[in-house]
From TrEMBL:
InterPro entries: Peptidase_M50. Belongs to the peptidase M50B family. It is found in: Membrane. It is a multi-pass membrane protein. GO terms for cellular component: membrane. Its cofactor is Zn(2+). Residues 51-217 form the Peptidase M50 domain. It holds the Pfam family Peptidase_M50. This is Peptidase M50 domain-containing protein. The keyword Transmembrane applies. The chain crosses the membrane at residues 6-23, 129-153, 159-180.
Length: 397
């Protein structure tokens, strides 16, 4: 949870490499023959299995804690296996990202938050689930290390001792890496420890995550609609405070973009004034606006802001100018960029991309598309936006 998936996966690759390297180095040192009875291939196989076990235990720690605190699970990704609940039944999908992912993620099946007491309960359970991953990793390390040492001390079997020695060394470094990456906090990614601290103390942070993760619920339409009352108003009021502090953190701007998307899709009849105010603030601060197009994670926000400002007569010309500049600076070399350019070209009347936009398979609005595409709610707002764009074009013609 609360990790930018792409960064996490890259980190996981590095972690696996570090674990392998550490184990290899340890085996090259002058170690008693009792611990060196395996071939290099066998050691590599053990390290891979240990890594799989470590990732599984970490993510299942999150999942178990969510469930124990009354929050159902929607999906758990472990390496290249996605366990997802559809229509009340668990399914297994192999390589859901069409690549072999080397990390994991736990996705809760969220219920609507209708009042403050439900939000407080959600905040408590959410925070506990975030810290449960690192705790599970430490517990696994303790159990495996202690039991392996006891077995090694009481066996004369060289093969068994060598296997357990490799497990201890590799799991130690993998666990340390997981704990270090869980401390990360920057503009793009937030690890489990700082996310836990935020969730425990900052109700707005939890409300924001719950509101945005509604799309991944098995009842996404119901949850999204019911969250449009208390939870949406709570967030709108919170955004007013954020704007007063001129907060441009990516998570805050992503929430602003969430409301813009709902407005484009027709889920919101009118855009909350604070969202207009945030858009105007960014519009008047080119440096802040420009930051958005420099990050793949925030790029879609930049596109949406241009489209929003294009709807206003006093900013329409500038929005078109900035968009044409963007087409020169950013090339559509990824599926997400291609989709955003096609959609915006259509919205600005530059090209008729009706067939492309009405094909659900072309929708791609996140660098983590390979995971989120498995959730039906991920497509809902975009399909409504595209239908509206195509319908508008037909009316003009």
């Amino acid at each position: 949870m609360k990790k930018t998936l792409t960064i996490f996966l890259i980190s996981a690759i590095i972690g696996g490499f570090v674990g392998f390297l550490a184990a290899s180095i340890s085996l090259s040192i002058d170690i008693p023959s009792k611990f060196t009875g395996l071939s290099t291939a066998a050691n590599i196989f053990i390290i891979i299995c240990t890594y799989l076990l470590a990732v599984s235990f970490h993510e299942l720690g999150h999942a178990y804690s969510f469930s124990r605190n009354g929050i159902n699970m929607r999906a758990v990704l472990i390496i290249f296996f996605l366990f997802i609940k559809e229509k009340g039944r668990w399914q297994i999908r192999f390589r859901p990202n069409n690549v072999t992912a080397l990390g994991g993620i736990a996705v809760p099946d969220l219920e609507p938050v209708r009042n403050e007491s439900e939000l407080i309960k959600m905040q408590s359970g959410y925070a506990k689930a975030l810290i449960a991953g690192p705790i599970a990793s430490v517990i696994l390390w303790c159990i495996v290390t202690l039991s392996s040492i006891l077995i090694i001390l009481n066996t004369s079997n060289v093969t068994l001792s060598s296997v357990l020695f490799t497990v201890i060394i590799s799991l130690t470094f993998i666990t340390l890496f997981f704990l270090v990456t869980s401390l990360i906090k920057n503009e793009i990614v937030i690890g489990d420890f700082p996310a836990y601290k935020l969730a425990k103390k900052n109700r707005f942070f939890v409300a924001m995550q719950v509101y945005q993760y509604a799309l991944f619920s098995s009842k996404h339409e119901q949850v999204t609609n019911e969250n449009s009352h208390f939870l949406r108003n709570f967030l709108i009021n919170g955004l007013q405070e954020k704007l007063g502090k001129q907060d441009t953190h990516i998570y805050t701007i992503a929430l602003v973009d969430n409301f813009i998307t709902e407005y484009f899709s027709g889920r919101l009849n009118e855009l909350p004034q604070v969202v207009w105010d945030y858009a105007d603030f960014l519009w008047r601060n080119p440096e802040e606006l420009s930051k958005l197009k420099k990050s793949e994670v925030a790029l879609s926000i930049y596109f949406h802001l241009l489209r929003l400002m294009y709807t206003k007569e006093d900013s329409k010309e500038k929005a078109l100018e900035l968009y044409m500049n963007l087409k020169e600076e950013v090339k559509p070399k990824t599926p997400m960029r291609k989709y955003l350019f096609k959609q915006t070209d259509h919205a600005f009347g530059i090209a008729d991309n009706s067939d492309f936009l009405l094909n659900k398979e072309n929708i791609c609005i996140s660098p983590a598309h390979g995971i989120w595409k498995n959730f039906e709610g991920y497509y809902v707002d975009e399909m409504e936006i595209n239908k509206s764009l195509v319908h508008s074009t037909e009316k003009i013609v």
